[in-house]
Design a protein that fits this description.
Distance between the termini: 22 Å
Number of domains: 2
Number of strands: 14
Order of helices and strands: EHEEHHEHHHEHEHEHEHEHEHHEEEE
Radius of gyration: 20 Å
Strand content: 15-25%
Length: 414
């Protein structure tokens, strides 16, 4: 079997700090927070009344108005981002090779907004008022399905649903398919839009969300001693992966190379990681093993970094276990300090930013890290971005159910 090198040739993002990648990246590097009072619904009765919403996004710039009315917000994000992705990559799929182009997009919950609205209508007006578009609007794989229809990709088409690791697992599956020759190119990443009454209420019931209502922009504070929970976000992050042969044949610009994917399970608890971060360790080591890299080869880590007490301490311990003495030398960042926790979209958005870090030579900061936590004693790039030549980035995603996924990217070299 021939194993193919896999390169990143396109990037796109819709985030709480920008409706395109250029704006999102500029604001990420500047340390801008996307947290603000919730506008999607009246949150006055909730313990948490703020979130990282995507702001003023007009999907009709990318989706016909008639179709837009039949799609949930998460699918609108995905189709819009995919359109921007293909433009960024300079790639139009030739119908003759459409079966070799995959679409694999992770999503944790799917159309929760549609589900809640339809259930309310069902209770108030009866089953005859349920829309025939309800099911195809709600299901989590509709993002991948609609992207496939939009760009004409006829290869593997699926959705990975693994909580907050969904987007990273999607990238890992796409990477593996291309490496093994099952596809020559893949649109992959993650999408989510669940800033809804039920989701916020559910995460409040878990005591997972920050309740810093008096100062939302200071609420997401990964690795800080005063962190009190994550800030729910939404958005989409997509990459175009291609085999090196396919990219070369069409003269594609190459941002970076994808070189390792690791996945694991904690086998421990529904929502909490084990204190020693064992599952995180297994996933990071698996990605490094596939890339044939040792601790000294890791130049930067884009951490899961949720701003929750358990995750941040466990992830710190896991990084120290994996990298040993080298851990103190590695700059780490948490994009979630600015964009919040975008759930199933997190791994997609953060992988996009990881590749941008390599391409631009800039490590975005971790904002709001003001009070050192003795349990979190590594270099988290506090407050201000760093300019540096970054050869490798390890990007981490972990989720409820004890699911873990990591991708390793490196600067491309012939």
């Amino acid at each position: 079997m021939t194993l193919h090198r896999v390169v990143v040739t396109g990037l796109a993002a819709i985030t709480p700090i920008g409706n395109d990648l250029a704006t999102s990246w500029t604001n990420l590097v500047a340390g801008m927070s996307g947290a603000a009072p919730i506008t999607h619904f009246d949150a006055a009765a909730y313990d948490t009344r703020f979130a990282c919403e995507v702001k003023n996004f007009d999907a009709t710039a990318f989706v016909a108005p008639k179709l837009a009315k039949r799609l949930d917000r998460f699918t609108l994000f995905a189709v819009s981002a995919a359109t921007m992705l293909m433009e960024d990559a300079g790639y139009t799929i030739d119908p003759a090779e459409a079966a070799d182009v995959a679409v694999i997009i992770g999503c944790g919950l799917g159309g929760l907004e549609t589900l809640e609205a339809t259930h309310t209508k069902l209770l108030a007006q009866g089953p005859s008022r349920v829309s025939p578009f309800f099911i195809p609007t709600m299901i989590a794989n509709m993002a991948a399905g609609q992207v496939s229809i939009t760009v004409g990709a006829k290869g593997p088409n699926l959705c990975t649903t693994s909580a907050c690791a969904s987007g990273q697992h999607a990238i890992g599956c796409a990477f593996t398919d291309i490496k093994l020759g099952r596809a020559s190119a893949a649109i992959c990443g993650g999408v989510e839009s669940t800033i809804t009454p039920l989701a916020v209420g559910g995460f409040n019931a878990l005591k997972a969300l920050s309740t810093r209502n008096d100062d939302p922009t200071k609420a997401s504070r990964p690795f800080d001693a005063d962190r009190d929970g994550f800030v729910i976000g939404e958005g989409c992050g997509l990459l175009l992966l291609e085999s090196l042969e396919h990219a070369r044949a069409r003269g594609a610009r190459i941002y970076a190379e994808a070189v390792g994917y690791g996945a694991s399970g904690d086998a421990f608890h529904m929502t909490a990681p084990p204190e020693d971060g064992e599952g995180m360790v297994l996933a990071m080591r698996a990605a490094m093993r596939e890339a044939d890299m040792g601790p000294a080869d890791i130049a930067h880590i884009n951490a899961h970094g949720t701003s929750t007490a358990l995750n941040d301490a466990c992830e710190t311990m896991a990084i120290k276990t994996v990298l040993g003495g080298h851990a103190k030398k590695v700059p780490i960042t948490s994009n979630k300090s600015m964009i919040g926790h975008c759930l199933g979209a997190a791994g997609g958005i953060e992988s996009v930013m990881s590749v941008k870090t390599i391409a631009e030579g800039v490590i975005p900061p971790t904002i709001n890290l003001e009070t050192p936590d003795p349990a979190c004693d590594l270099d988290y790039t506090p407050g201000k971005a760093k300019h540096a030549d970054i050869a490798t980035v390890l990007c981490n995603s972990f989720g409820f159910g004890g699911t873990n996924a990591c991708m390793l990217y490196k600067a491309f070299a012939e």
